[in-house]
User: Fold this.
Amino acid sequence: MAKKKIEKVYEKLSNEYEIFAENDNEWEKNGLNSTDFKSLVSVMLSTMTHTKRVIRACNALYDKATTPKEILDLSDDELTELIKPVAHYNRKTKHLKEMCQQLIDNHNGEVPRTEKELLELQGVGRKCTDIMMNFNFGGDTIAVDTHVHRVLNRLGIVETKSNEDTADEINRLTPKKYKKHAHEWLIQHGMNICISRKPKCEECIASSLCDYYEKEF
Ligand code: SF4
Assistant:
């Protein structure tokens, strides 16, 4: 049932939204993902932070440092100052330094390409790992953030409490052919229509498939 429903949702969303490679992607334009290392750092910095602030912090940081060694050469105060536009910049300073040291000690300064190794890095959680696997290493894992989690729960495709549980469920339910771009469609829907405070259900192309809509209207 949920499998059939999610296929119908993907069909609708894929007609509505462009994939990131086709649209005016802010990350691409600003070079936030021009190397695997920059992608990893940008994703780490992006948690709980609006894209505009992520871009400001990343531009400031990448003007000074674009490799693990160059980040380690910055003092903690310098690094914190550069990434100050993002949320939790003190914690992220600490994690970035530890993660860079791990890359140098264990991976010759390169970003590892397996889920297991990525998850062992300080400050790199499930969402960061799934994004790296999908966008950088050609995998087809669907990354789940707060927007994707919300949309899928409102639709009634999953009934989950955490992003991690949603990620497990949606990766199990989604047919392979939709996995590559599912995150991109779902996140755009969550940011533009199925927004947190008051979803724009009257504009939603998936309302005929939505449990929340059926209950509320
Ligand atoms: S109908 Fe409303 S709650 Fe359901 S997916 Fe669309 S915007 Fe979200």
Summary: The radius of gyration is 18 Å.
